[in-house]
């Protein structure tokens, strides 16, 4: 499925193909929370990097967060955002060079039938104390760090995988 996204001021836009477009995983780590979210967590989706097309590249800025502030170890993800309005657009990590991770809020074309009925809440050990995460149940799954399945596996199991 082709996803189209843009920043708030519309100076940067992009499109990317995704087999896994359902926004079901919420990350509470401090990097996602502070660099992307603002609401206590961030939601990324996964796209095929070789299909990413960006318009307005001259307005793009990038940021690579610190995984560990004491050792100055960098996070693998490079986050791309609009230098004009500050909207986060997507992240890229050379470790998983086939993929790009669009920020779900930047996507303009999510279809209603891809609205998952459950959510995975990950990196809860990093959650800010003021954030209320739902208690685990049939619709909310909680993980102190990473989940027990991949984005692709989850999409295939739930019938959201798009060829």
From TrEMBL:
- Which keywords, in A-to-Z order, does the entry hold? Lyase, Metal-binding, Zinc
- Identify the Gene3D superfamilies for this entry: glutathione-dependent formaldehyde- activating enzyme (gfa)
| Keyword flag Kinase | no
A Pfam family this protein belongs to? GFA
Q: Does the keyword Metal-binding apply?
A: yes
Q: Where is the CENP-V/GFA domain?
A: 3-121
Single GO term (MF): metal ion binding
Alphabetized PROSITE patterns for the sequence: CENP_V_GFA
Q: Which family does it belong to?
A: Belongs to the Gfa family.
Q: Specify the protein name.
A: CENP-V/GFA domain-containing protein
What lineage, starting at the top, does this entry show?
A: Eukaryota, Fungi, Fungi incertae sedis, Mucoromycota, Mucoromycotina
């Amino acid at each position: 499925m082709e996803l189209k996204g843009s920043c708030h001021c519309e100076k940067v836009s992009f499109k990317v193909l995704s087999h896994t477009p359902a926004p079901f995983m919420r990350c509470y780590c401090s990097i996602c929370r502070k660099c992307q979210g603002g609401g206590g967590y961030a939601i990324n989706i996964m796209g095929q990097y070789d299909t990413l097309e960006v318009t307005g590249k001259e307005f793009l800025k990038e940021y690579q967060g610190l995984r560990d502030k004491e050792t100055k170890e960098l996070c693998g993800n490079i986050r791309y955002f609009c230098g004009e309005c500050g909207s986060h657009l997507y992240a890229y990590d050379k470790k998983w060079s086939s993929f790009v991770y669009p920020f779900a809020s930047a996507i303009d074309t999510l279809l209603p039938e891809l609205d998952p009925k459950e959510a995975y809440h990950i990196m809860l050990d990093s959650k800010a104390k003021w954030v209320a995460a739902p208690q685990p149940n049939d619709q909310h799954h909680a993980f102190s760090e990473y989940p027990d399945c991949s984005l692709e596996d989850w999409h295939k199991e739930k019938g959201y995988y798009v060829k």
